[in-house]
Amino acid sequence: MNIRVLAILAGLSTIGIYALQFVGARFSLTTQGELARLTSTDLTILRIIASGLFFVPFLRRRHVRAFLNLGWKRIALLTALAGAPYPFLINIGLGFTPAAHAAAILPSSVVLFSAILGLIAFKAPISRYSSISLVLISSGMALFVCYDLIFDPWALPGDLILFAVGAGFAFFSLTVRDLEIDPLAVTAGIIWCSWPLMVPMFFAMPSNLFVAAPSEILSQAIIQGVLAGAIALFLTTFAARHLGSQTASLFLVGIPITTAFLGAVALGEFPIVLEIVALGLMACGIGLPATRFVLQQYKTARR
Fold it and tell me: Any residues with CB less than 8 A from the CB of 127 and at least 6 apart, and which?
């Protein structure tokens, strides 16, 4: 099979994985079902432990050395931005807001703040298409806030938390941008550095790990840890390597749309017109810069 076809299939698979991550976490964090639900702490512990164990067979000494050479200050910063606090805050947000909100707000806020931080840190100019993209994303976020204030005030804290998490991950992306280190080493190192945080988190925060159904614990370990925490990274890297990072980023557009559909089917979270418009604006905002790049490449190739 053609390598580009495999890369496209990898990108499409990440859409399903991330949609499943959001909907699965939302299911466990709400009162749906007959047993005690897992908490945001439980989902974070399962993700960090499961993904860390999954990475063990693939890591080599050179990966460990490269990560340790970053220095403890940089390692602490990266762990704070993309380690255990990252999924913990996402799950906190999902406890308040629908899965489709999270799937739209998180990637779009990363795009928004990446452009803003790039302008501040590197004086990188924002193109006309990027400006339109930022306006679309901001408009979508404003509509979500309007929805929260009018129909579901309980969702507003969750949306704002997820918006802030996206800003933090944008800063993480900016921090690792110029690091000459294998993404596998960074990801596994951050996860392993998060392991010691699991003990105080378990004792200090609410947990239902000992009373939740074993089937739910196992399924969430697979979804949050193995699939979203590990395999999705490989698939994303594979797609970016063979399609280009700009082209691969187009798959992000499918995450909020797929999550909204899956959330409606599995959770009964049917979006109203206001939410659909917000989702559409954010999806367009996410995909516009990449779409322009792909069209330019296509025109160049036709000449």
Answer: 289
Alpha-carbon radius of gyration of the chain: 19
Which helix (H) or strand (E) is 126 found in, with range? none
**147: enclosing H helix or E strand:** helix 128-151
- Helix (H) / strand (E) element for 20: namely helix 3-29
Distance (Å, whole) CA 28 – CA 26? 6
| Structure tokens that stand for 133 in this block | 């993209």
For residues 69 and 225, the answer to whether their CB atoms sit within 8 Å is no
In contact, 87 and 224? CB cutoff 8 Å: yes
Amino acid of residue 173:
S
Task: Quote the CA–CA distance of 78 and 190 in Å, as a whole number.
Answer: 7
CA 214 to chain centre: 26
Residue 177: C-alpha distances to residues 47, 150, 173, 182, 245 (Å): 25, 40, 6, 12, 13
- pLDDT bucket at 302, cuts 50 / 70 / 90: low
pLDDT tens per residue, range 251-269: 889 999 999 999 999 999 9
Q: What share of the chain is helix, strand, coil (3-state, %, to 5)?
A: 85, 0, 15
Which amino acid, 162?
Answer: L
